[in-house]
């Protein structure tokens, strides 16, 4: 059995009388690609904020990369990476400047930043772009770079928010290959998305509805369990919110 | 027509829903007038005055008593020499020094006239003007009293007023016209440009363009609410300055309001122009503030007299609409002059308005590029 | 039958980027026509030309029989447009937004209520709520109601399903299908391949080029080789191994499997042996039916080779 990097027990988050997260229990393991799905307003955002140390749970135990989300939020932040579809990189800075800035934020030494930058540019075959500003790069390249930058400091977990929205099918596959590679290196990948075909790429997925986790299994098992041929159909069967 | 009214209604909904901005729009001018009005009225009740009596005779004693017993002043110190003047101002409590020349009483009797100097602390221009105005009024009154006794009416006491620190003192009367000039540019140019660019940013402009609304309807629909708001604001400022501050419009109110409307139209067309060249609200705000507000304050003659500017700035100020409006509004409000005295400025504003509106309508795109 | 849109060799350039190259297609009355392609493919530019917001550099675009350049005033009365970002006023309520768009187009909500009732009924309980406070799915429904309120002959929807959850998206497509009975032609764009199946006909678009136009079924059938779905216990290893297998033409991850085309057009024991030797377990390989995305990948590769 692999080590658990995210462990959530009886997590409850209330805003006044509104229960955003209603007694969540789940574990995510090292090197796993975990899909976190749910309708708009199901409570996903709240959970992710708690998992990334931005918000405190009302009650329950949340351990991220070995740290308690209630007491050690700062340590958690050092051990996670985050990439969302839109605002990950500064558009008016060059590729290199973005990487250096990011490394600096995570307190990496100058030598380490330089070494990692080269390694990253090699891997993406990006050397010709290193002094270009982000705004001039095609969307697909930006997404790949944003992901690489999010794991520059070798986090235990990387959170991806709808990472491949709007990119072309080839780039998308290259992106998912990068995710597989990252997971193979032992980094846990936590993906949230509205797009169910993206969910099919994950090792396991959970589906949230009205603050509760209503399903958690491998995509294959879920499809079998609900006797349908796609995760989208599973989702529509169980995640239907009350007129949202 | 229905379309247009629907559009205007929507604009009003935007304005009234954003109560913070609305509050600022009406709150700031009101606050400026109020703060100013109250600050002045409390100061003049008990303004500190120091006397440098180089004559020390019966007449100077009488005049000193008259000044102090007026209720507006309070004696802070009796000075012995000129050297003490600056010192007494530095302490801050004294707003004015009254100086009687040597042999004041004797001169008045023998030559029929005598000199008195009034020096005020110009670092507080509004107080300084008020204080010296009050003092000269008291002296004038004193003049009348003694002229009743004496047959010879000419001459008498000649007050000479000087300002310390700020010789080019602006009168408080400048303040109200200045606020009006500034507020109008602020509301009209800034708010109009922001509301149009906001539609661009939200993507709603795309839908409006694809609708059967004509460009002129969109422009007018945007402009109308702000035209009304600005007009209400002008009336509000005038009312407040009259109620609180006692400043009434000396000239024709109708003329003043008509000129204001012209200036509002001009500012609105500037706003539309800004919105056409800027692609985001941020840009529109920046251009309005840096491009309109600062020049208005600095180059229109509102704070710094145009006559004292370097030639280059003076030339630039020729292009500033507020410069002309300040002249117009000052003439009407304070000097009470009629249209004949401001027709040139009015004509310039009118031409500017026509040019700006012309450019706006021409430049407003029916498409996205 | 009259064509609702007839585009002939439309090209459009923005500074250095050629956004559209020689785009020709036609749309029939009452059909749902989809443009499927990634961000930056030119979908939005094309839709803006159709909605008379942009002028083409070259080519001819006829919409409802009118030229998109000279007939723009008349066209604007008959097009319903929902831009990529839902064009709503966040500080106005649901009801106020709808009423506003109705008056702008010279109609009333009452007059065309039957057209939008299906859609609007979902959000009517919240009609006093500010549009900015709605969830993504509700915003989408309101924006659609607003675009429909003047009963347009042509409805142009630019990425209406982006950022909306799967349940709302599925509902949305059902609503579009129902609109067909009102004789409204619908032009819709999406970056999501799976949504192609909900359209009557689709055009696959990439880098300003149309790769293919047909019914979704025909497009899938256009896939030229046999496609195999390969699974094993470790995905990353599987992909790398398949790429190095000499018979492999293409290997792309696809959900929990890898879609592979092989030179011999069939799976034989040597593939299994090869994968097992690479250390993979539970290897399975079955033939599968190509989807729109498989065909898109194939067309993209062809394009790149050219």
Report on this structure:
The complex is a heterotrimer of chains A (244), B (369) and C (306). Chain A is α/β, with parallel strands linked by helices. Chain A has 9 helices and 10 strands. In chain A, strand 4 (59-64) and strand 5 form a beta hairpin. The model of chain A has no long low-confidence stretch (mean pLDDT 88). Chain B has 2 domains: 2-37 and 172-363, no CATH class; 46-164, 3-Layer(aba) Sandwich (abc type-2 transporter like fold). The model of chain B is unreliable at 165-171 (pLDDT under 50). Chain B is elongated, with a radius of gyration of 26 Å. Chain B has a 5-stranded mixed beta sheet, sandwiched between helices. Chain B has helices spanning 2-17, 19-45, 58-69, 84-91, 104-110, 125-149, 175-202, 204-210, 215-245, 253-277, 281-299, 311-317, 321-335, 339-363, and strands at residues 47-53, 73-79, 94-100, 113-121, 156-164. The two termini of chain B are 28 Å apart. Chain C is α/β, with parallel strands linked by helices and 306 residues long. Chain C is 34% helix and 28% strand. Chain C is built from 10 helices and 14 strands. Chain C is globular and about 70 Å long. The model of chain C has no long low-confidence stretch (mean pLDDT 92). Classes of the chains: A alpha/beta (244), B alpha/beta (369), C alpha/beta (306). Chains in contact: A-C, B-C. The A-C interface holds A 38-41, 138-140, 165-171, 173, 176-177, 180-181, 183-184, 194-197, 200-201, 218-220, 232, 235-236, 239-241, 243-244 and C 37-41, 122, 125, 135-138, 162-170, 191-194, 206, 234-237, 239, 252-256, 293, 296-297, 300-301.
Q: Largest sheet of chain C, order of strands side by side?
A: 6-7-8-3-9-10
Could you give me the name of the CATH homologous superfamily of chain A? P-loop containing nucleotide triphosphate hydrolases
Q: Low-confidence runs of chain C (pLDDT<50, min 5 residues)? A: none
Shape of chain A: globular
Biggest β-sheet strands, sense, barrel of chain C: 6 strands, mixed
Radius of gyration of chain C using CA atoms only: 23 Å
Top CATH class of the largest domain in chain C: Alpha Beta
Number of domains of chain A: 1
Cα end-to-end separation of chain A: 39 Å
Overall helicity of chain C: 25-40%
Rg over alpha carbons of chain A: 18 Å
Total helical segments of chain A: 9
**Based on the structure given, which CATH architecture of chain A is correct?**
3-Layer(aba) Sandwich
- Order of strands in the sheet with most strands of chain A: 6-7-8-3-9-10
Question: How much is the average pLDDT of chain C?
Answer: 92
The H/E string of chain A reads EEEHEEHEHHHEHEHEEHH
Order of helices and strands of chain C: EEEHEEHEHHHEHEEEHEHEEHEH
């Amino acid at each position: 059995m692999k080590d658990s990097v995210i462990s959530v027990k009886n997590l409850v988050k209330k805003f006044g009388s509104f229960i955003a997260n209603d007694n969540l229990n789940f574990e995510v393991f090292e090197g796993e690609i975990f899909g976190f799905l749910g309708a708009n307003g199901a409570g996903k955002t709240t959970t992710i904020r708690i998992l990334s140390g931005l918000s405190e749970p009302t009650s329950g135990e949340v351990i991220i990369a070995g740290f308690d989300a209630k007491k050690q939020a700062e340590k958690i932040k050092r051990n996670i990476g985050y990439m969302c579809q839109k605002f990950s990189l500064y558009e008016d800075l060059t590729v290199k400047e973005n990487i250096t800035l990011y490394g600096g934020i995570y307190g990496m030494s100058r030598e380490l930043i330089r070494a990692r930058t080269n390694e990253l540019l090699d891997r993406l075959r990006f050397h010709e772009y290193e002094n270009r500003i982000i705004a001039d790069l095609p969307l697909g390249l930006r997404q790949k770079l944003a992901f690489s930058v999010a794991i520059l400091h070798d986090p235990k977990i990387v959170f991806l928010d709808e990472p491949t929205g709007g990119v072309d099918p080839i780039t998308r596959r290259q992106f998912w290959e990068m995710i597989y590679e990252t997971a193979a290196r032992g980094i846990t990948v936590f993906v949230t998305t509205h797009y169910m075909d993206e969910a099919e790429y994950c090792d396991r997925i959970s589906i949230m509805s009205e603050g509760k986790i209503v399903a958690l299994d491998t995509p294959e098992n879920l499809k079998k369990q609900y006797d349908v041929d796609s995760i989208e159909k599973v989702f529509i069967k169980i995640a239907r919110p009350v007129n949202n | 027509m229905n379309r247009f009214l629907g559009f205007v209604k929507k604009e009003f909904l935007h304005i009234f829903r954003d109560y913070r901005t609305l509050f600022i729009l009406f709150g700031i001018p009101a606050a400026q007038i109020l703060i100013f009005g109250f600050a002045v009225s409390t100061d003049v009740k008990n303004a500190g005055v120091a006397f440098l009596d180089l004559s020390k005779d019966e007449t100077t004693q009488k005049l000193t008593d008259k000044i102090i017993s007026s209720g507006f002043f309070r004696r802070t110190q009796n000075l012995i020499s000129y050297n003490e003047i600056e010192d007494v101002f530095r302490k801050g409590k004294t707003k004015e020094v009254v100086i009687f020349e040597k042999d004041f009483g004797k001169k008045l009797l023998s030559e029929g006239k005598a000199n008195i100097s009034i020096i005020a602390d110009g670092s507080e221009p509004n107080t300084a003007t008020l204080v010296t105005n009050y003092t000269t009024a008291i002296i004038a009154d004193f003049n009348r009293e003694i002229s009743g006794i004496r047959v010879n009416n000419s001459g008498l006491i000649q007050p000479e007023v000087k300002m310390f620190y700020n010789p080019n003192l602006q009168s408080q009367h400048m303040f109200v016209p200045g606020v009006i000039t500034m507020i109008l540019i602020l509301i009209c140019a800034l708010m109009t440009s922001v509301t149009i660019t906001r539609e661009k940013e939200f993507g709603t402009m795309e839908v409006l363009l694809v609708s059967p609304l004509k460009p002129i309807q969109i422009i007018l629909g945007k402009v109308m609410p702000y035209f009304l708001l600005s007009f209400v604001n002008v009336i509000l400022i005038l009312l407040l300055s009259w109620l609180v501050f006692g400043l009434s419009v000396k000239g024709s109110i109708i003329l003043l309001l008509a000129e204001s409307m012209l200036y509002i139209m001009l500012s609105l067309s500037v706003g539309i122009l800004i919105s056409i060249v800027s692609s985001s609200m941020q840009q529109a705000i920046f251009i309005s503030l840096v491009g309109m507000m600062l020049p208005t304050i600095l180059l229109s003659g509102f704070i710094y007299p145009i006559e004292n500017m370097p030639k280059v700035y003076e030339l630039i100020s020729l292009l500033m609409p507020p410069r002309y409006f300040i002249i117009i509004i000052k003439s009407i409000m304070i000097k009470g002059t009629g249209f004949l005295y401001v027709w040139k400025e009015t004509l310039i504003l009118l031409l500017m308005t026509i040019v700006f509106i012309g450019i706006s309508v021409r430049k407003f795109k029916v498409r996205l590029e | 039958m009259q064509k609702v849109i007839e585009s002939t060799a439309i090209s459009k350039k923005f500074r250095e980027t050629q956004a559209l190259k020689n785009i020709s297609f036609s749309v029939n009355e009452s059909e749902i026509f989809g443009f499927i392609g990634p961000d930056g493919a030119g979908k939005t530019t094309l839709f803006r030309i159709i909605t008379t917001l942009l002028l083409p550099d070259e080519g001819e675009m006829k919409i409802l029989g009118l030229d998109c350049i000279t007939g723009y005033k008349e066209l604007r009365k008959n097009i319903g447009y929902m831009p990529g970002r839902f064009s709503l006023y966040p500080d106005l309520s649901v009801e106020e937004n709808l009423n506003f768009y109705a008056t702008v187009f010279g109609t009333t909500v009452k007059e065309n209520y039957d057209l939008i009732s299906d859609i609007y009924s979902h959000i009517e309980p919240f009609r006093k709520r500010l549009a900015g406070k709605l969830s993504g799915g509700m915003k989408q429904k309101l924006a659609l109601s607003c675009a429909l309120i003047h009963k347009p002959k042509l409805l142009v929807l630019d990425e209406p399903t982006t950022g909306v959850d799967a349940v709302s998206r599925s509902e949305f497509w059902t609503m579009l299908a129902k609109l067909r009975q009102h004789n409204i032609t619908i032009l819709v764009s999406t970056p999501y391949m799976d949504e192609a199946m909900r359209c009557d006909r689709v055009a696959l678009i990439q880098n300003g080029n149309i790769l293919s136009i047909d019914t979704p079924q025909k497009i899938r059938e256009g896939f030229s080789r046999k496609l195999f779905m390969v699974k094993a216990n470790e995905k990353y290893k599987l992909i790398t191994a398949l790429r190095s297998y000499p018979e492999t033409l293409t290997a792309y991850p696809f959900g929990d499997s890898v879609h592979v085309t092989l030179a011999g057009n069939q799976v034989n024991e040597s593939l299994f042996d090869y994968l097992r030797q690479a250390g993979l377990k539970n290897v399975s390989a079955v033939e599968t039916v190509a989807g729109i995305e498989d065909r898109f990948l194939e067309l993209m590769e062809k394009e790149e080779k050219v």
